[in-house]
Fold these 3 entries.
Entry 1:
Amino acid sequence: MIRDFVGYQSPKTKSLKLLYSLIRKLGPIKVSSLTEMTGYKHTTCVRLIDELVQAGLVYDSGLGESSGGRRPVMYVINPTAFYLIGVEITNLFTTVLLLDLNLKILETKKLKMDSQSTGEYTIDFVTKSVSELLARNHIQRERLLGIGIGILDPFDEEKGVMTNSDSFVAGGWEDLNIVDYLSEANQCPVLINNGTNLAALAEYRLNYSKENKNIVFVSSDMGIRCGMIQQGKLISNKNEMDDAFGHMIIDIHGQRCSCGSYGCLQAYSSLPAIREEVVKRIKRGETSYLKDIVNDLEEISYHQVLEALEKEDPLCLEVIKEAAYYFGIGLTNLIYLVRTDIVICGGTLVPKPLFFDVASEIAQSRMKKYPNSPVKIIKSTTAYHIVAQGAGCMVLDYFTEELLS
Ligand SMILES: [Zn+2]
C-alpha cells in the first residue's frame, strides 16, 4: 500500500496517506485525536486505520492508559513494515546504513575513501553493501523502499552528477550519474539531496517534529552551511548554494574571504579561517605548543589545531573564542531572517571547548530584544550518522509526506 502513496492517488489513498503521516509524526495517538485533526467521521477514520493495520503499516502500541473505561487504542507506525538505506558520500568516508522506518540504525557499512575509491568503485560498494545488509538481516528486497544519498559537495540534481569533486582523491565522479547508476543496479527508487538539508531533516524527524515546525541546522567545518525545515517541510534550496550562510557578510571592512568578498562569516568561523589565524598569530610571536611540534608553521594541520583546542592551548582558545563570537553574530542574523524555533549546531567545532557556548550566548543575548520569541540553540546530539539517517528519512518522506516541489 505504501507505494501507492506516490504519483496519482485516489481520494481514499490520499486519506490513508494523511493518516499514516499523522500517526508517524504524533504516534502513539488515539483515533479521537486523528478525527479531530482530519475532520473525518469517526467511523470513516476507524475503517481507514483498519486498512492501514491490515496492510501491516500501523498497529496498536498498547500504550493507551484507561481513565476508568476501556483502554484507548494508541496507534504507532510499524517500524519494520519496510526498510530504508541511507548513504552519505564524503571525500573521507562513504557510509551505508540499513534503517527501519523509525530511522533506527540496524547496521552500518563504511568505506574509507582513498586513491582506489573512484566514482564507480564507490557506488559499487554501496550496491554490494545493500545486498549484504539485506541478506544479513533477513530482509527481502521488496521490503526495501529505496536508497537516499546525502552529499556535501555541490551536485546537479537533475543530472545526478557531482559538479565539483576536486576534494575526492580518486576521480571518475565528473560524468557519473549516481542516481541512475544506483537505481539501475538496485532496482529501487534512489533520491539525492544535500547533506546539510538531510541533517536538518533527520534532526527534525527524530527529535523535534512533535512540537516544532521550524528548525535550522547549522554546521561549521571547512565550510559553514545551513539546512532548514519550515512549517514541517524541508526547504530544498539550491544545492550549489548550500555553503552560502558562510558568505553572509558580518563586517564590510573585514577580512578577505576565499570567495573574493570581504568580511564573510567563512573568513572568521570556518576551520580554514581558524587555522590561518592561529598560524598568523604564532608568526607574530604569540606562544602556542603547536609551534614546537612542526618544523614549518604552514604545515600545521586542521587536525593539530583541533587537538590543541582540546588540550586547551591558550592561543587556540583565544582564536576559537573570536571565531565563535562571529559565528554567534551570523546565527543571530539567520534567526532574525527565518524566525526559527530551534537552531541545532553540528559540525567538528561544536563539541570542542568554547565554540558552542560562546556562539550560543552571543546569539541569545541579542535575542533579548524579542523576549516573547524564545529560540532554543542546541548542540546536535546524534551527529555522527545524521546525514545518512536523513538520507534514509528522505526516502520515507518521499512516499508518505506531501513534499514541496
Ligand atoms: Zn565569502
Entry 2:
Amino acid sequence: MSRVAFSDLRSAAYCPRKCYYDRRRDERDPPATVEHIRSLAFRYEALLEADANALAGEPIKTDPDSFRRALEHTRSKLERADRWDPICNPAAESVLATGRDVRGIVHKVLSDPLEPTLVSTGKPPETGVWESQSVHAVAAAKAIAWEHETPVEGVWLEYPSYGVVRRLEMTTRRKARYRRVLRTVRELDGPPARIQNDSKCEACEYAGECGVRTRTLRSLLGLG
Ligand code: SF4
C-alpha cells in the first residue's frame, strides 16, 4: 500500500474535501514566502540579538518588541527542558522521513531523545496546536520512529513568525485521530461531502470552487 503524504493528512484533518482538491492541483511547491518564514526557525539565536530595525525587516507577524519577548519566553521554557540548544542546532534538518504508512519532510530532527519538529508558517492557537497540525505531528513522529526503529514520545511545533515553540505528547487520543484521518485519505475516491463548519470554509482557499455558502456570504445576501 502506498504511503500517504504528510500534506494530505494535514489537509484531510482540516476537511477531507479540501484534501481531494489539493490532490487535483498540479503545482504543490511552497511559495518563496513560506521558505522565508521557515528560515526564522533556523536563526533564533541571531534573532534574539537583532535590534528592532533588523527584526522589522524579517517576516515576523508581531511588532519587534512582542516578538523578542515571545522568543525570550520560548528560550527560557526550552532551556528548562534542555531543548533550546537542540532546537537551535538540530541533529538533522529538512529530512524526508519515510514511515510504514506515511512520508514527508520533517523540518528538524532532535536527538536524546529522538523527536521531530515541524515548522508552521501560521499563527499558533491560544493553547496547544491546531488539530490538523496535531495529525501531521503524529505522522512525523511515526515516520521518524519507523526509520530509526526507536519510539518517539513527543513532537515539537514551531511558529517562528510569532516566536512560539510548543511540544505535543503522543497521546492515545492523538494517535487515534491520526489513524482515522489516515483511513479517510486512503479511502478518498471522488469528492467527499462538504463539512458544516463556517469558520473553516471561510478560511478555505477552495470556498469558491467548492460552492459552500459561508456565513459571510449568507449575511451579505441577507440570509444568515
Ligand atoms: S470550502 Fe469548506 S467544505 Fe469546501 S473544501 Fe473548503 S473546508 Fe471543505
Entry 3:
Amino acid sequence: MTGYPKINLDGALVAITGAARGIGLATAEQFVAAGACVAIGDLDGGLAKEAADRLGVRASGHDLDVTDKESFAAFLAAAEAHHGRPLDVLVNNAGIMPNGPFLEMTEAMDRRQMDINVHGVIHGLRLALPGMIERGHGHVVNVASLAGKFPLKGLAVYNGTKFAVVGLSAAVRLELEDTGVSLSTVLPSAVNTELSSGIDMGALPCVEPEDIAAAVVRSVRSRTAEIAVPGYLGALTKTVPLLPEGVMRRVRHLLKDDAAISAVDPAVRKIYLDRINKQ
Ligand SMILES: NC(=O)c1ccc[n+]([C@@H]2O[C@H](COP(=O)([O-])OP(=O)(O)OC[C@H]3O[C@@H](n4cnc5c(N)ncnc54)[C@H](O)[C@@H]3O)[C@@H](O)[C@H]2O)c1
C-alpha cells in the first residue's frame, strides 16, 4: 500500500496485548522471527515473562490490564524503556469470549467483555497514536473477529463487542488519513486456542493461531483495512448481508449456527470460563 512510510521490522518495536498465550503469543513469535523487538503484555504477567524468556533477548514480558488506562500507559512506557526505541507497531489483541444464551449471561460478565474487548482497544489507540502521528510513522492492528461481521447465537454480547471494534477501527483509520500512520483490523474465523475450547464450531472454518499471526505480520507491509482469515471469508462479509433474511435463516440452520449454545463440551469449556472468571 502506498502512502505510508515503510516500517522495517528489523529492530522495530512491537507491543502486543494478551500475548502470554494463544494468538498473541504466536504473533510475538513471528515478529521476533522477522527481526522485531517484542513487548508481551498480559493480565497473566508471570506467563508473559516466561514467554519472553523463551523468545530471547529481543522479547520482554510485562503485567498489563488493558481495561486500566494507567496500566496500559505503564506497559507502553516500559516497552519503550526496555527496548530503547519508540513504538512502531501496536497489536490490540487481548480479548475474552464467554458463551451462552443471551438471557442467561451475567451483567458483570457483559461489562467485563465490553471493558476488555472494546475499552481495552480504545485505550491502546488513545495511548499509542499521538506519538506515532508525531513521528509520522506507525501501525496498529486490532484483532477483532468475523463475529464482528456475522452475528452468532450464544455470542450476542461478544458479537456486540467485535462489531464495535470493527466500526471503531474503520472510523479511526479514516481520521488517520495523511498522518503516515495506519490501522488494520484482522477478522479471524474460529481459532484453535483456549478462547474457543470446548465449542464445536461445526461448519465454521477453524484455523491455527499461527495463521492469524502471519496475517498480523503481513499487515505491516500491506496496511490493508480489513483482513479476514481465512481470506476467502472476506468476500462473504460483503455478500452475505445482501441475502434475504429467509434464505439466510435456512443457510444458518444447515450450518448449525447455534454451536456456542448447543455444541459445547461443558467439562472442557469450564476450564476456559473458570480462567476468565478468576482473572
Ligand atoms: N480463538 C478464537 O476462536 C478467536 C476468533 C476470532 C477472534 N479472536 C480474538 O483474538 C484475540 C485473542 O484471542 P485468543 O484466542 O488468543 O485468546 P486466549 O484466551 O488464548 O488469549 C487471550 C489472552 O488475553 C489475556 N487477557 C485477557 N484479559 C486481559 C486484560 N484485561 N488485559 C491484558 N490481557 C488480557 C489473557 O490472559 C490471555 O493470555 C481476542 O481478541 C479474541 O476475541 C479469537
